[in-house]
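Example 210, ligand zinc ion.
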Amino acid sequence: MNLKSAAYRVLQRNKVRNLVATSVGILRNSRTTPVTDSLISMDQEEQLLKALSSACLNLGISPVEAFRALDIGTLESWQHNEIGDEMLQTFCLAVDIRRNIDQGVRPTQYNKPAYCQGCGPVWLWISGTVTGCPWCWNRATGRPIPRPCMVRCQDCKNFDRIEHPHLGHCSRGQPENIAGLWDEDLRYCEHFLPKPVSASDGQAKPERAK
Ligand code: SF4
Ligand SMILES: [Zn+2]
């Protein structure tokens, strides 16, 4: 597969991801086609690292980390002068956000409580309900998801009821009393996963934290 077709495939996949997430999703996708030494001369690499140094100012990532996150399509665009400083800054910001998410840390730009149908209550850059979000990858890999509100175990997929009207245990091994978890108690939980609800039930959104 030549570079053009590889880049085209990356762009196509990115396009699909953009429908459900943000440019942050592109970064995860692009990691499957990393830039290798054969694609860039030493002079260009030096020039690009210099540009990335400026772009990473005030961010929590280094120019080298940003460089490693580049995909070949983006590199080619930069080599053809199709990517300016502003776009590089946006790219580095997206890398920084993605890294925070991977570590289960809320990026400062994600300051609105929202609801993802897969993850439950999440912090996003927009409010409202979405079908997928940048935290979905954490959900798929069992990583924590910071929450904007408290939740109830009774609304969670991970809650295994026992023979008691209100008690159960957490299949994710979250801390609980000797007797187990009380289904209606409000708690802050980064491993909550919303139970599917039928159309007639409406969406069971947890209460907001005080
Ligand atoms: S993951 Fe959290 S909310 Fe879900 S059952 Fe376990 S403790 Fe309760
Ligand atoms: Zn999600």
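Summary: The longest strand covers residues 112-116.
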